[in-house]
Amino acid sequence: VETMINRVTYRLILLIALSGAPLVQAEENATAVDVDFLPLKRAVRCTAAKCQLPNCRCSGLRLPSAEFQGREQEIPQLITVTFDDAVNVINYEQYQKLFDGLINPDNCSARGTFFVSHEYTDYTLVNALYQQGHEIALHSVTHGTGTDYWREADVELLMAEFGEQIEMLMKFAKVSRKHIRGLRLPFLQSAGNNSYEAAKRLGLLYDSSWPTQRYRSPAMWPYTLDYRSTQDCQIGPCPNAAIPGFWINPMVTWLDTAGYSCAMIDGCIYPPQDNVDALFEWMLENFNRHYEGNRAPFGMYLHAAWFQRGRHHFDALKKFLHYVNTLPDVYLTTASRVIHYMKHPSLGKPFNGCPKKPQTTCIKRSCGLRKVETGEIRYMNVCDSCPSVYPWLGNPFGQTEY
C-alpha cells in the first residue's frame, strides 16, 4: 500500500511540475497554467485576421504575408534530418560520419533532431550529440506495446510516458529542460486530442508525428492548433480541439518508385534498387517537390536500422546531404529551429546567428541494473552516477523503492 501511495504521490508531483509551470516550461512556449487545464474547446475555422504570427498560424500551403507571394525561390529551403529510437554505439558512429563537415550557408554547423526512446539508449552518447548541437527530442519511455496502446492512451499516461522521459534525459544525459522542445509518437499513432493536450501541458513546443499525403505538392507548412486543422488525417484519431500555441510540424510524405506514400523513408514499400545513384536520384526527386515548389520544410524521417537494410543506403544518404549542402539557400537544421523560423519567417538568410552549443560535464558510468518488471539484467551507460534499478515508467530515476 505504501508503495502504491508513493507512486500516486510521485505522479501528482510530476503532473504539477510538468504541467506548464514557469520553472520547467520552455521559454518560447510560456502560457498560464490555469488556461491549460480548462476544458478543451472544439477548434473552429481559422482566419488570418484571428491567427497571426509569431504564436498562431493557420494550416496552409504558403507563407501568409504578401511579401512572400511570387517570391518562393527566395525563401530559404529548410531540411530536417530526424532519427527515431535508441541511441547506441553503432548508430552514434553513423551519425558522426553523416553530419561530419556539413556547414550551412550561414557558416553554422548542420544539425539533426533525435527522437530518443529510453530502452537500450546510451545516455552518454545522447549527451555527446546534445553537446554537438543536435536536438534531443522525445519518443517515450516504453515505446508502448503496439498502436492500440497509443491510440487509447489518456492524458495522464501520455504525460507519464513523455514527462518521465524528460526527467530521464535531464538526469542521465544532462540535457537542459529548456532544450527539450518536441516529440514524436511511437508508430506515429495519435490518441487524438489527448496526445496534444498532454504535450502542451508538458510545456512542449511542437509535435512531429502527423503525416500528410494530400498536401505534398505543394507541401504543407508547419502551423499551430489554435484553430481547426485542414490537414488530412492518415492515422486517426486526429485532434479536433483548440490547443493554443502548440505547433504541428507535418510529416510531408515521400513517394516511392511505385507512387505510394511513405512518411518514414524506411517505410517506403518500393524503394529504388540498392544502388547509390538510384537512391540519390530518388531522394533528389522527393526534395525537388519542395525546392522547386513552395519551399515548405523538407523532412527526412528515418530509423538508423535502415542503414543495415541495404549496402548502399548510408552512402546514398550521405551523398544526398553533401549535395544539398552545396546549394546556397538550403539549410540542414533541427525541427525546433524550423518552428523558430516559422514564428519569424523571412526571405534569404533564415536565422540570426548560430545556436549556442550547450556545455555539460558527463562522467560515463556503466551500470548493470535489474529491470523490476521482468527481473532481467539491463546494461546502460549514464552520466555521473548509476541508478539503483533499471529506470522505467513510474520509476524514471531508478530508485530501489518507488
UniProtKB/TrEMBL annotation:
The keyword DNA repair does not apply. GO terms for molecular function: hydrolase activity, acting on carbon-nitrogen (but not peptide) bonds. Keywords: Signal. Residues 1-26 form the signal peptide. GO terms for biological process: carbohydrate metabolic process. Pfam families: Polysacc_deac_1. The keyword Secreted does not apply. Gene3D superfamilies: Glycoside hydrolase/deacetylase (3.20.20.370). Residues 77-204 form the NodB homology domain. InterPro entries: CE4, Glyco_hydro/deAcase_b/a-brl, NODB_dom. This is NodB homology domain-containing protein.
